[in-house]
Amino acid sequence: MTTKQSTIIKISIAAIALCLLTLLGTYLYAKHKINQHLQYNLPKHLKVSYSGININILLGNITLHDIVFIQLVKGSNKTKTFAKAKQIALKDIGYTNLLLHNQFSADKLTINSPQLTQNTFLDTITARNTTPKKGVFAKPISISEFKTTNGEIAFITNKKDTVASAEHIFVNLKDVIIKTKSCTNSLPITYKNSTVSAQQLKANLGDFETLKINKLDVNNYTLNIKNLQLKTKYSKEELSKKIRTERDYLHLNIPNVNIKNYNYAFKNKQFTFAVENITIHKPNLEVYRDKLIADDFSYKPMYSKMLRGMPFYLNIKNIAINKGKITYQEKIEQHIKPEKLTFKDLNATIANLQNYEDKSTVVHTNSLLMGKTPLELNWSFNTLIKTDFFKAWGNFKNLDIPSINPFLNTNLRATAEGDMQQMYFTVSGTKQKSAGDLKIKYNNFKFKVLKKDRLGVNKLLTKLGNLLIKKDSKQNPSNFRYGEIEVERNPSKSFFNYLWINVENGLLDALTGKGVKEE
Predict the structure, then answer these.
(1) Which residue, 72, 183, 380, 440, is most buried by CB atoms nearer than 10 A?
(2) In Å, how far are 136, 137, 180, 301, 356 from 132, measured between CA atoms?
(3) H-helix segments, 152-278
(4) Vertex 310, ends 307 and 316: CA angle to 5°?
């Protein structure tokens, strides 16, 4: 070996050693700075700990193991947020962006088995920090791919009661931009593609109802929900003991809900949620009301007012309900078991369910009353009209009277006989009053008023009532009897009660009045 070759080898070894020492020094410095920042430079109400840290300077990778994050309520030792993860890994940190543009970026951020618990009843709001952010946090953070695996989340109260929770959460977001500057007119995080899944989602909706979802899947802008259940926490009997005024017992079960092309953004400085299409498959709703409980005389707003008063813009172009079922019961008397009023094979469409454009929301429904009588009901309204003006129209054909007699027996202490062939009604009105007309075709219609114990017929009331009711509609030229509708709304009752008393008013006028259409 020549002297020149020996010199080159020595220089090479020295260079390699210098590079290794530089890498080691950079590694130790980076590790020290991260430790120092997480341990000493955070605000006093934020605590972070971890079991180990791995840093690969060449590849730009940082991995934290068994990390725990605690957010305390400022000025106390109460925990607002507790989070932990088995591993948090950053891959391929962008040195060029960091050194040349003073902007933090990375190819991938992965959080393995995260668990988050947050107390929603503890307040951490402090005075807004108006000091401009400096360094890498002055610019948006860019991450090509964000991923979490098998996560859990829970929101609790001071009493450790769960407000909402979810398990087995998997998230994958692409091209993530996190805005570090406060901005009220845009979202703090944006992304292009997303897949999210979660199981066993639960939410406490207040003192009486809970919401459960077995599984939720999101693929970009399509969302699928499986086995949604909204239910009263108590049995019907228990609920009656806990309430002072009337409240419905609810049990809603939906096997599948599909939401396509949803989006959210800010419109005129207001948060906006828009959906192209929602399909609800085979919903089954059971409603029960104990009428022995005192009435709730609080104001019941119309649907247009409720939409108008929402704190954000909503725009759902179309909702379709397929093969639904609704069951309704009212307990009228203590020792009488209430019969069910059912609507089977319910199909419905709702177009333009929104609250900021000058266009009508239109609802079309059709179902089988008691599973036998075709029933159609439609209505429309415009949320921007502050009188809450609406139109409603509907009809039934060949009413199966024997099928509704059990309900009439328990709820009206009456039974009906005869042949109800067709009925049509049209109503328009506001939140205060309404008017319209109704026509009906029937034959040999009569009813019986039952005694209080329902074991016999009250012959006197039955005779008096049937004297008032015209036997059939054949005597009219069109084979229809007509009735006029004129109703004042009880604002402590729901929209559907309002709609029913309109039909009831027109039906009574058609059966007992002149029965002739006013020209």
Answers:
(1) 440
(2) 12, 10, 10, 45, 36
(3) 236-242
(4) 55
Nearest to 430 by CA among 376, 372, 391: 391
CA distance 68 to 75: 21
Query: Any bridge partners for residue 162, and if so which?
Result: 156
Q: Which residue has the tokens 């039909």?
A: 503
pLDDT of 246-296, one tens digit each?
A: 999 999 999 999 999 999 888 777 889 999 999 999 999 999 999 999 999
pLDDT value of position 133: 53
How long is the chain? Answer: 519
> 492 vs 447, which has greater pLDDT?
492
- How far apart are alpha carbons 264 and 332 in whole angstroms? 46
DSSP one-letter code for 243: -
Percent of the chain as helix, strand, coil, to the nearest 5? 20, 50, 30
Q: What is the DSSP letter of 431?
A: S
Helix ranges (H only) for 135-268 are 236-242
CA nearest neighbour of 223 among 261, 252, 187: 261
Residue 22 has a pLDDT of 44
| Tokens linked to 506 | 């027109």
Contact predicate 508/483, CB 8 Å: yes
